[in-house]
Amino acid sequence: MSSSCGAPEQGAEIQVGANEVVLTGKVSAEGAPVGGAFVRLLDSSGEFTAEVVSSADGDFRFFAAPGTWTIRALHRSGNGQASVNADGPGVHPVEVAVA
Predict the structure, then answer these.
(1) Can you tell me the distance from the alpha carbon of 79 to that of 38, in angstroms, rounded to the nearest whole number?
(2) Domains along the sequence of the chain with CATH
(3) How far is CA 95 from CA 6, 18, 90, in A?
(4) What sign results for the dihedral spanned by CA atoms 43, 80, 61, 25?
(5) Chain Cα centroid distance, residue 80
(6) Separation CA 75–CA 27 (nearest Å)
(7) pTM (2 decimals)?
(8) Ordered strands of the 38-42 beta sheet
(9) What is the pLDDT of residues 2-60, one digit of tens each?
């Protein structure tokens, strides 16, 4: 899968470096994955930082700095958001339900 904006393939497995912070998860509605959702990364002050489109399986991923982040998903079937505290390097999972 290729992206015109250079974003990594959202469903692919990745290797995380020693100092990398990765926010990853799924967008779902009533337990089913939601593909094609616009998934936005907002910093602790609510400022827009980045956006990706969820894969057909609802997967998304952001490389970020340590801190508290809000993930907001926008889709024709509904919107939702979740917060994640990425206090250090590693993979930080977050699930976003849209309704």
Answers:
(1) 10
(2) 21-97 (2.60.40.1120)
(3) 23, 24, 16
(4) positive
(5) 12
(6) 10
(7) 0.83
(8) 48-53, 38-42, 67-75, 78-86
(9) 444 445 555 556 666 678 999 999 999 999 999 999 999 999 999 999 999 999 999 99
